[in-house]
Design goal:
Blueprint (H helix, E strand, L loop, with lengths): L1 H14 L14 H5 L6 H26 L4 H25 L3 H16 L8 H4 L10 H7 L7 E4 L3 E4 H14 L1 H8 L7 H18 L1 H10 L3 H18 L20
Antiparallel strand pairs: 1-2
Length: about 260
């Protein structure tokens, strides 16, 4: 029960935040959004409002406090968390048939974990490794041809689709080496506390980076719920396609901040 509660509280930070750079109509493709049915829109909107309340009461204040920390501390934390996420990216590279990327990311992880002091310093990037791109099991299912299913807003967990929800469960069924070492096996070197702390760090780091973006989006959106839905679905589609042609991507965590490339 304790783990479920902790997971839920952490996930809201990832789920209720989006980035700005769009108006109420969204500059996203309506065609892309229309491909995924919002089968439970009424319930989804209610859940979305609940998640917003939790974010405003708990997570936004924590994120604002985190932003007060010196920039090198925040950068090092973000790098270390990205390094841990490589453990999920590598098996997904393999499942998607991207063996070269799997090899590159394996080298990245080894270098950053050792020379980069558990990933605090992104040494691999400095010596010429290509920019890191996260992969997850939801993306892998998409590349295998599985459709997204209905759009859903999970209580506390936030925006998702049936496919992405199934993909998330894969992490706890052996697909995430970090989860296996900490929570599943609880070795003498690591414990479940280390895992949940890292997940909390991901949420806080992501929320802190997107405070201004979220506020701008909410302020400029005619329908904030619809804007979040469109951004989420567009972002997932682009990541599944491994597209680099768009000028709209999202930053860190599940979504990345919209920016011109």
């Amino acid at each position: 029960m304790k783990k479920i509660l902790i997971t839920s509280l952490i996930s809201i930070m990832l789920a209720t935040n989006v980035s700005a750079g769009t108006d109420g109509e969204n500059s996203l493709s309506k065609k892309n959004s229309a491909q995924v049915k919002d089968c439970f829109e009424s319930l989804n909107r209610t859940t979305f409002k609940f998640n917003q309340v939790l974010d405003g009461v708990i997570f936004e204040p924590v994120a604002k406090a985190y932003r007060v920390l010196p920039s090198p501390v925040r950068a090092g934390t973000s790098n270390a968390l990205d390094n841990l996420s490589t453990l999920v990216t590598i098996p997904n590279n393999i499942l998607q048939g991207e063996l070269k990327k799997a090899s590159v990311n394996t080298g990245r992880f080894i270098i950053n974990t050792t020379v980069g002091v558990v990933g605090i310093f992104d040494v691999a990037q400095k010596i010429g490794f290509p920019e890191y791109e996260k992969e997850d099991y939801g993306q892998t299912l998409g590349t295998m041809g599985f459709g997204p299913g209905c759009y859903i807003v999970l209580p506390v967990l936030g925006p998702s689709t049936v496919r992405d929800t199934v993909g998330s469960f894969a992490n706890m069924l052996g697909g995430d080496p970090w989860y296996n070492v900490t929570v599943a096996k609880d070795t003498q070197h690591f414990s479940d506390f280390d895992y949940w702390t890292s997940k909390a760090g991901v949420g806080i780091d992501f929320r802190a980076k997107n405070i201004d973006s979220l506020e701008n989006l909410e302020k400029n959106s005619m329908d904030f719920y619809a804007s979040v839905r469109s951004l989420y679905l567009q972002d997932r589609q682009l990541k599944i396609a491994n597209s680099s042609d768009t000028t709209e991507t999202m930053e860190d965590g599940n979504w990345e901040e919209i920016e011109s490339q």
